[in-house]
């Protein structure tokens, strides 16, 4: 096999790897196996409000949809801003943190979401609907 054949094969493999990654990301299954329950088993702390008990959803777009559908007790829509990625000894996958604001501008809390699971949680954190 010549160098050109080798390089063509390497390029084909890289293209296949990228297609596989995009497929996993679109399905929210980047790491292969996540929970299929509304709450991640073995977590501790207040659901969604504690880094050690994040909200499981199936993808990053699903995390945004979850937040866009979240309401305060006064039925106002939450405003949110991603603060970064975090880790927890109780959760196998990365966790995204979001600052949550009331429409009047008050910062209310942080919510934590793990977007690498099989289903989108139907549970809401305390104080939200």
Explained architecture:
- With 129 residues, this protein is of the alpha+beta class.
- The chain is built from two helices and four strands, in the order αβαβββ.
- It has a domain of 84 residues.
- Strands 1-4-3-2 form a four-stranded mixed sheet.
- The model has no long low-confidence stretch (mean pLDDT 86).
- Give the helix/strand class: alpha+beta
Q: For the terminal residues, how far apart are their CA atoms? A: 62 Å
Give the percentage of residues in beta strands.
15-25%
Number of DSSP-assigned strands = 4
Count of helix runs: 2
Quick synopsis:
The protein is α+β, with helices and mostly antiparallel strands and 129 residues long.
Keywords:
129 residues, alpha+beta, 2 helices, 4 strands, 24% strand, elongated
């Amino acid at each position: 096999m010549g160098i050109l054949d080798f390089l063509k094969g390497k390029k084909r493999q890289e293209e296949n790897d990228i297609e596989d990654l995009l497929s996993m990301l679109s399905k929210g299954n980047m790491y292969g196996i996540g929970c299929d329950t509304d709450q991640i088993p073995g977590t501790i702390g207040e659901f969604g409000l504690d880094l050690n008990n994040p909200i499981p959803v199936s993808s990053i777009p699903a995390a945004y949809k979850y937040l866009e559908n979240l309401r305060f007790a006064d039925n106002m829509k939450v405003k949110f801003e991603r603060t970064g990625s975090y880790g927890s000894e109780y959760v196998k996958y990365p966790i995204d943190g979001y600052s949550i604001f009331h429409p009047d501008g008050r910062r209310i809390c942080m919510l934590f979401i793990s977007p690498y699971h099989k289903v989108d949680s139907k549970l809401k954190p305390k104080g939200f609907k």
